[in-house]
């Protein structure tokens, strides 16, 4: 698989199977009426799912099997994990498989929003269908060739064999005749037995793109080059909501290589995926454009957020978090009364600042406007939303816009928002249809992200005389992602409170969960694992604080709070979202949570004695319908420097499709979790993000990585069990486990992230 | 100006101050070397200049005159570079892969200078290269594997 990432449109795809628009199953949640049953999982996603082999597979006469990856590759390995499911189920030899990337077209390919840790969870089964149908078509073609009953032939490793006569024929030779056969009905599909899997569940799968990456031949969005292409950067308004008053580009135009400047419209709130506006510098190369931008003299008109200041906003959040009231999310018994009457109580506040996703490849898009159509090439997590948003801004129909999906140099949620594609498209149009690559510099990326929210979490608990927890109160304050779509939103959405506020599986008799209002002053967006970050940090730190106060072992208290093994209907917890999954199919299973806690504490030798200045910390969190527990071991030097000798993480994500990539995702989540806990902070002053590159906005480097990360995957019963998410759930427990370990090592409690210099004497 | 890149001489029509990164990527169309920060903070743009790892985003082309640039595209021509690349593939090191050109060039330069680096040597040589996906542990393992392989080949 030496080829560069290739788009279907660019190659002769119709070699074996004909490409057809036939769609076997498409969910249309947008059209469902209240009377219809609520749709869950892949059925509930926009444009649902497609499992037509004619859409996803083609076979060339030389035997090369081409499989379409319709979800965006950003490091999670989806270009390996989903195509290998097809290959396995159809008995194709992975060495003869080529993966091509789908362009944005959800009617054709099914949902393509690559976020929410959903790709394998939602498409394992459709991809098995694709593979099984393709295999059966090949078998039918071979049976016809030999005039034998199809029951006597069997596809095996890129061939179909007839054992009785010892004959065999390669997939390539069968391609033409198989492509003329009808696609078998979904109900008639026969699946491989899991014991016959060659790739699914195996730990030695090599990455589809490993070789091209190692040899520098990949094509990311940043690497697109078109004939006659020009380059552009944008001077964005400094604070969210500022607008352009006037500008002087005289010196800019004197920079060698600069071609011209033009302006982009700013957009009134809500932010949605609209461009921020500003001045575009167009040049013959990126460097000239950057130089030209530095020479611009711009007057900005201050907008409503130009006095956003993080310290003041924090105080405001602190006040609301410490006042009774706010929207009640869930109430059980009377926590207020019990807290007032209790023998012992405990209370703590936690603060988690804004964060920027900062994918290694900053946002970038290449657009070629051609009058009545526009073609784009971009690293986008949301190909269809990109297409729709660009079409709206260009006043074209979505069918007139083509979005080619390149490899993504990281995404982490930032590249779910196609504002940068709109900028490129508008620029190409303003240039009269010249192809343009519009590059965000690191400064643009860090200062104009759709930031992870800023949160203030207030927790209280009450104990009876036996140390049993009798009451729990959690007030969570944070600007909501909802404000990005409805500027007046001040409360967290179901998806946010369903990330570890309401769906805590604790058997405590009195529970009070509240969400005071918080307004937004910048664009708020998804960041890997989203609101699980602050919620898990607060809840899992607080339980460690409770254990300490009550002289209890943290693990013992945690298990006591979780209580007996049971399946909880998320709706009973007022979790109406449940990661979009059916509450019947995906109840919250406390036994699975207990199992990862017990497993990780056992493997990490929880409670072992450690020298002075060292400690272990535990945290467990359920997110993206996956159960994760972590034990972090830290070493804190006399001058407060933290190092992490070892992290153990136990993960129950249900059946494992590509265990190797699951491990790599959890390892990465561990490092990103440590990074945000130790260093991560975006703060605002005068409405502007103070940090603007990797000096101010620091992220973990190799010297800060744990010496050892051990990922333990819990075996599932069968591949028929529901799958859990993988890309995100590894992250939430890391920061609290780290801070709990720091407490064990130093008796210093970290309640405000990042840790940074807090431990210095 | 003439630039020697991967042992080939290129005629370059660009201002003296243009960073090597943009000359490679935009003028010469060699996109293996990546842009990550533009300020010598992330290592994505690492290339070798006369064998030493440098940040091409802050090094002007003028500084490379009469010197030799090696980029990811030709790193496999060095024995160490090839061993590093093989170890990367073998260990499935990359996630998104965007930082990995820079990581591989830095790791190759490390092994060229120090064939058997310990953990501290690796940290020192590699901490200028950010991997936002968090592949550090696999990078460490892959460097050690490549070092051992090279030593075994040498002895064998
Ligand atoms: S791009 Fe040169 S060090 Fe980051
Ligand atoms: S692999 Fe993605 S930044 Fe390193």
UniProtKB/TrEMBL annotation, chain A:
GO terms for molecular function: oxidoreductase activity. InterPro entries: Ald_Oxase/Xan_DH_a/b, AldOxase/xan_DH_MoCoBD1, AldOxase/xan_DH_MoCoBD2, AldOxase/xan_DH_Mopterin-bd_sf, N-heterocyclic_Hydroxylase, OxRdtase_Mopterin-bd_su_IorB, TAT_signal, TAT_signal_bac_arc. Residues 1-34 form the signal peptide. Keywords: Signal. Pfam families: MoCoBD_1, MoCoBD_2. Residues 215-304 form the Aldehyde oxidase/xanthine dehydrogenase a/b hammerhead domain. PROSITE patterns: TAT. This is Aldehyde oxidase and xanthine dehydrogenase, molybdopterin binding domain protein. It comes from Methylophaga thiooxydans DMS010.
TrEMBL record, chain B:
The lineage of its organism: Bacteria, Pseudomonadati, Pseudomonadota, Gammaproteobacteria, Thiotrichales. One of its GO terms (molecular function) is oxidoreductase activity. Residues 1-75 form the 2Fe-2S ferredoxin-type domain. This is (2Fe-2S) binding domain protein. It comes from the Bacteria. It holds the Pfam family Fer2_2. Keywords: 2Fe-2S, Iron, Iron-sulfur, Metal-binding. It comes from Methylophaga thiooxydans DMS010. The keyword Metal-binding applies.
